[in-house]
């Protein structure tokens, strides 16, 4: 019997004896705290409070478990895209992304920093597909911001010479830096000050159409 068929047999053989969502949340925190490569199956079953056979039956393997944890953390890319599209302007969208991220990076009950950044920081060639999956979420955010900026340009709200690609990449790069700062122990106020300083680089005519929402949370 192959490993896949064995997993499928166990999945359909009996109902789970634990709350799948609750243990998935614990796995997410483990990956967030320690990273993908350095989090072992032993670490996971200890922190999730289940046995190895139960982990394999519910999630398949460590990699699939990680992918589910990432979806739990980041949500569906389509939801992020819709929120950015619905913002009054790309400036407001970027400020909202930064504010929400800073709140997540400095949560009281969660590890500091960003799961997507910290979980693959020391990845090896063996986890190339893991890093590629994480990169999809960052590209989706960047592309959504870029599209929102380009819409402002097309609608005449922003000058045509604004570099939408560079501006969107600025936000993504800033998020990476803020994550590192949070893991280094910087508090929410410090991260907010950095975000506010960086947003001053946004074109003035974009800022003029925003609603003055503060990045501070």
Poorly predicted ranges (pLDDT <50, ≥5 residues)? 1-12, 208-217
Return the domain count.
2
Main sheet: strands, sense, barrel: none
Structural class of the secondary elements?
Answer: mainly alpha
CATH superfamily of the largest domain: Tetracycline Repressor, domain 2
Overall pLDDT level: 86
List the helices and strands and how they pair.
Layout: H1 3-13, H2 20-34, H3 41-48, H4 52-59, H5 62-74, H6 77-86, H7 90-105, H8 115-118, H9 128-154, H10 164-183, H11 188-199, H12 204-209
Helix pairs in contact: 2-3, 2-5, 5-9, 6-7, 6-9, 7-9, 7-10, 7-11, 9-10, 10-11
Question: Short description, anyone?
Answer:
By secondary structure, the chain is an all-alpha fold. It contains twelve helices and no strands.
List keywords for this structure.
2 domains; Arc Repressor Mutant, subunit A; disordered C terminus; disordered N terminus; mainly alpha; 217 residues; 0% strand; Tetracycline Repressor, domain 2; 69% helix
């Amino acid at each position: 019997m192959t490993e896949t068929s064995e997993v499928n047999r166990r999945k359909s053989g009996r109902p789970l004896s634990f709350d799948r969502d609750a243990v998935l949340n614990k796995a997410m925190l483990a990956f967030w705290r320690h990273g993908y490569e350095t989090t072992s199956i032993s670490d996971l079953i200890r922190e999730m409070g289940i046995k190895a056979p139960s982990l394999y039956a519910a999630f398949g393997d460590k990699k699939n478990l990680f992918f589910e944890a990432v979806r739990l953390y980041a949500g569906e890319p389509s939801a992020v895209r819709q929120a950015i599209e619905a913002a009054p302007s790309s400036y407001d969208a970027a400020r909202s992304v930064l504010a929400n991220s800073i709140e997540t990076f400095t949560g009281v009950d969660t590890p500091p920093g960003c799961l997507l950044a910290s979980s693959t920081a020391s990845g090896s060639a063996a986890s190339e597909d893991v890093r590629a999956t994480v990169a999809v979420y960052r590209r989706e955010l960047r592309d959504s911001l870029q599209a929102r900026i380009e819409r402002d340009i097309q609608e005449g709200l922003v000058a045509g010479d604004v570099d939408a690609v560079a501006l969107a990449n600025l936000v993504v790069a800033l998020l990476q830096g803020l994550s590192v700062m949070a893991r280094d122990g910087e508090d929410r106020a410090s991260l907010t000050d950095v975000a506010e300083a960086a947003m001053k680089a946004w074109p003035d005519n974009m800022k003029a159409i925003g609603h003055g929402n503060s990045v501070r949370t």
